[in-house]
């Protein structure tokens, strides 16, 4: 178990990899730590791990279903001669398809994380996000105080308090 304190407030949460990352970031407050360094210090090295798809089959199926829903919405709006609703639905579909294109390769093929740094960035972000969520469940004020000073990405940092 971990006790996270902010001022006079405490949150008690179970151990997790994300809490280990968070502790290391707090210990090195204000220092940008590469996500790959955090990941390799708490887990086995990521080298040689096969490429993982950005979207798994379940996510791809959910995307396909949502696209079909949006197309039906457009068809219904056009059938009702509701030009504004059809335009909003088309704009939503366009944004959705742009996001999907970024997550897939040519012709919608599955795209994989390209390197250890990207894999580590995603892994560390998810683990820290889960740890902060557990802190918020225990004490929302402590969770928000931690979350407000936390930055994750290729480099992660726990920001020093502002004066």
Describe this structure in words.
The protein is mainly alpha-helical. It folds into two domains: 2-51 and 114-158, no CATH class; 57-108. Helix content is 58%, strand content 11%. The chain has six helices and five strands. A three-stranded antiparallel sheet has the order 3-5-4. Helix 1 (17-27) crosses helix 5 and helix 2 (35-42) crosses helix 5. 17% of the residues are buried.
Numbering strands along the chain, what is their spatial order in the largest sheet?
3-5-4
Average pLDDT metric? 81
> Which structural class do you get from the secondary structure elements?
mainly alpha
Question: Distance N terminus to C terminus?
Answer: 31 Å
Number of helices: 6
Low-pLDDT regions: none
User: Into which percentage range does the β-strand content fall?
Assistant: 5-15%
How many separate structural domains?
2
SSE succession: EEHEHHHHHEE
Major sheet: 3 strands, antiparallel
Extended strand count: 5
Radius of gyration: 21 Å
What would the principal axes of the Cα set say about the shape?
A: elongated
- Residue share in helices? 55-70%
Please outline the helices and strands.
Blueprint: E1 2-6, E2 9-13, H1 17-27, E3 33-34, H2 35-42, H3 57-79, H4 83-103, H5 116-138, H6 140-148, E4 150-151, E5 155-158
Antiparallel strand pairs: 1-2, 3-5, 4-5
Helix pairs in contact: 1-5, 2-5, 3-4, 5-6
Summarize the entry for a quick read.
This protein is mainly alpha-helical and 163 residues long.
Features:
single chain, 2 domains, 6 helices, 163 residues, three-stranded antiparallel sheet, mainly alpha
């Amino acid at each position: 178990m971990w006790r996270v304190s902010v001022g006079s407030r405490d949150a008690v949460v179970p151990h997790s990899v994300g809490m280990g990352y968070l502790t290391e970031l707090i210990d090195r407050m204000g220092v940008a730590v590469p996500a790959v360094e955090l990941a390799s210090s708490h887990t086995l090295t990521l080298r040689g791990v096969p490429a993982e798809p950005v979207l798994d089959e379940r996510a791809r199926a959910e995307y396909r279903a949502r696209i079909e829903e949006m197309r039906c919405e457009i068809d219904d709006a056009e059938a009702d001669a509701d030009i504004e609703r059809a335009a909003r639905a088309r704009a939503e579909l366009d944004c959705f398809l742009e996001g999907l294109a970024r997550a897939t390769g040519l012709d919608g093929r599955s795209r994989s994380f390209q390197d250890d740094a990207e894999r580590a960035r995603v892994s560390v972000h998810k683990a820290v996000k889960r740890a902060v969520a557990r802190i918020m469940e225990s004490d929302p004020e402590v969770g928000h105080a931690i979350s407000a000073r936390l930055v994750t990405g290729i480099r992660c940092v726990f920001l020093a308090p502002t004066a």
